[in-house]
Amino acid sequence: NAEPYAICSLAEDLLTRMAATHAPTRTFADYAAMLADPELEAVIIATADAFHVEASRLALEAGKHVLCEKPMAMSVEEAERLAAIARRAGRILHIGHMKRYDPGIEAAKDFIDREMGQLLALKAWYCDSTHRYTMTDAVQPLIVKSKAARRPSRDPKADPQQYMMLAHGSHLVDTARFLVGDIVSVEARYLERFGARCWFVDVAFANGTLGHLDLTVAVRMDWHEGFQLSGENGSVIAQLFNPWYYKSSEVDIFHEKTATWHRPLAADGHFYRRQVEGFADAALHGKTVRGATVEDGLASVRAMAAIAES
């Protein structure tokens, strides 16, 4: 339900190579010129984090729907300004929390909403691996770079705490909110040893559920990500995988009434493609989809800022 109508890049060599790969109808080396094209309905922004707000603003004000990579912004103030712009423009702004389109997590969400009853406690963890790049390089498409590419004026990794929270913590926070609901308070502890960093965050949700979030970068083992949720009528235990494997989460759902476990196959694990499909359904048909909205993106940035402050 979506097609790559145009590709825009300031780097001519990247533009040529990506156009040859994806065969768009048009290519642009100027962002304003692309936004002026009346045939263009929506824009996917997959730039460095520092450029998300401005690129999204320009697209929204040009009347385009936007799917922007996470995080929505690098500060609460920036996120609030962008949210206000999206509301005024009356356009859709979705944020790239693609895990919401993981069919395993979707199955867990359906059980939570329909059968689980009152929720009690969530434990969720996101532990990047020291071996992640070795493993990713074996399966990820080749990264094509260019000396002509525009880079942020400040090295995003100059502040490792901020960088890791925005890059990894955003997934952990959004998954917790997607499953349980709004976060109303956080209390965080932080430890750095031998180049590894660990955040333990106790959270309270608006519905009274208690939560514990563990962000550790990087563990000396395999990628370790998942969650455990306890409720009135059952429990959910989930294992998530390195996203470049395109493998749906393994989600085990326990039904208290029948004392049985259920694990969906969730065969279609291409959550990046499914995210674009959901975005297009929202833009073209006004459908309610599971993608992270502008309000979700704003709430995620607020939660990460609160964790940093704590």
What's the layout of helices and strands?
Elements: E1 6-8, H1 12-22, E2 26-28, H2 31-35, E3 42-45, H3 52-61, E4 65-68, H4 76-89, E5 93-95, H5 103-114, E6 119-129, H6 132-139, H7 160-180, E7 183-193, E8 196-205, E9 210-219, E10 224-231, E11 234-240, E12 250-255, E13 260-262, H8 271-285, H9 294-309
Parallel strand pairs: 1-2, 3-4, 4-5, 6-9
Antiparallel strand pairs: 6-10, 7-8, 8-9, 10-11, 11-12, 12-13
Helix pairs in contact: 3-4, 4-9, 7-9
Would you kindly provide a written description of the structure presented here, covering whatever features stand out?
Helix 3 runs parallel beside helix 4 (76-89), helix 4 runs antiparallel to helix 9 and helix 7 (160-180) crosses helix 9. This protein is of the alpha/beta class and 310 residues long. It contains 9 helices and 13 strands. Helices cover 36% and strands 27% of the residues. The N and C termini lie far apart (43 Å).
Summarize the structure.
With 310 residues, this protein is an alpha/beta fold. It is built from nine helices and 13 strands.
C-alpha-based Rg, rounded: 20 Å
Helix and strand run: EHEHEHEHEHEHHEEEEEEEHH
The secondary-structure class comes to alpha/beta
Strand order of the largest sheet: 7-8-9-6-10-11-12-13
Number of helices: 9
CA(first)-CA(last) distance: 43 Å
State the share of residues found in helices, binned by percent: 25-40%
Query: Would you tell me the overall average pLDDT?
Result: 97
Query: What's the overall geometry?
Result: globular
- Major beta sheet, specifics? 8 strands, mixed
Q: Stretches where pLDDT falls below 50 for ≥5 residues?
A: none
Strand proportion, as a percent range, falls in: 25-35%
Total beta strands: 13
